[in-house]
Fold this protein.
Amino acid sequence: MSIDHLVGVDLGGSHYTAALFRPDGTLLDCRSVAETIRGDAEGVLARLSALILQILAWHNVSPQNAVIGLGMPGPQDRRRGVITKAHNIGWYDVPVTAPLEERIGSRCFLENDAVAATCGEWWQGAGQGTRHLVGLTLGTGLGGGMLVHGRAYYGAEDIAGHFGHLVIDLNGRLCPCGVQGCLEAYVSTGGMLKTAAEIGLHLPEESGVKPLSELAAVGDPQAGEVFRRTADYLAAGIASIAHSVNPDKVVVGGSIALAGELLFGPLRERLAERVFPAARGSLVVEPFALGDRSAVYGAAIQAWHRSREE
Ligand SMILES: [Zn+2]
């Protein structure tokens, strides 16, 4: 049996995506399905299996010759292939690799979605050629991942890279994790809307940060101030990462990063003030190059590496 194709999956709150690759990184197919993921683990896994089997069949790939990487929200038990407490999709103690392996007939590997996104950027995106890479995904939460010497680094208990819970203010806002002052309580959709409300700009929560970006883009001073404050908070977090991990590059993706220079402009200015001069040369902050496909790329390449380590 020889593995000659890779499948990457990205499961988000309102959709799943499956993509087929050659081991050299060539993308052969990519399909997204929008549906409600929350709660219905069994149904979603059945439909996801059917989609993957279809993609393999369309490309005449036998399931035994493919390996599948599953980029899914955590917390999770990566080695056992179980999603343990994914609050945002309401999946608790859901085994994912075992039922998918049974239905599809390919070896499957579970991966944290933010780690997968970082690995994807390292493989085919903005992190290509780096030795030490940190990735941040800014959306409803703040996810993180890192590669050290070109390998995903997980730490002793798979907790490494949870940069959303770097504390930037001891007496700050309460984070969903129960601790005060975590970076995620400021640099996330909800965090930015809170910052906006603090300066008198009240926006509906359900539309995310898009209205804020649109206002800032046409020069609204309050919306611009929200991006400057967010960049300041994020710079405090990235400075801590620079001084503890010292990566070659930090790549930043997710819905908030789509605001582009509204965020990256003030972020680079603040970083220049906060980071040791010795680390500045190696500290480059760039947006994801693969957009919302980073995680399917990364889940696929991680599955390939993990299958070869077995
Ligand atoms: Zn926290």
Remarks:
- The CA atoms of residues 253 and 288 lie 5 Å apart.
- The two ends are 14 Å apart (CA to CA).
- The first helix runs from residue 41 to 58.
